[in-house]
Amino acid sequence: MKKIIVVDDDEEVLETIELVLEIGGYDVEPLTNADNIFETIINFQPDLIILDIVLGKIDGRVVCNQIKSNIQTKNIPVLMMSALYHAQEIGYLATPPDDFMPKPFKMDVLLEKIENLISKKKLRHNIN
Questions:
Q1: Which CATH number does the domain 3-127 belong to among 2.20.28.120, 3.40.50.300, 3.20.20.10, 3.40.50.2300?
Q2: What is the model's pTM?
Q3: I want to staple 78 with a disulfide (CB 3.0 to 4.6 A). Which of 8, 34, 89, 97 is the partner?
Q4: 54-63, 70-79, 86-95: lowest mean pLDDT where?
């Protein structure tokens, strides 16, 4: 079973994504903040991280940079989401996410993006 960490400070959005992913056959670890994300990554070993940009006291782009700059976590695909920002606004980051999804979103599009990212990770892993 593929594992996904979802980080969103909006509990309703978090619960909705968690429910859809669980119905889709994923093991989900929901987080309302990124305070212990590296501990969660080590313990949960996710195949993908879904990360909101606006997380209250920390910017999701900073968290994405930390994940993508860390040798142990840089190969985990990150799908960023936001209702306030657009894909062009995160494309300039030194360590951009693997994909972006605006909110509100359609669940079928979310599931398609997740499958694409996990498939690419598996392909990269098999090549190395």
A1: 3.40.50.2300
A2: 0.90
A3: 97
A4: 86-95
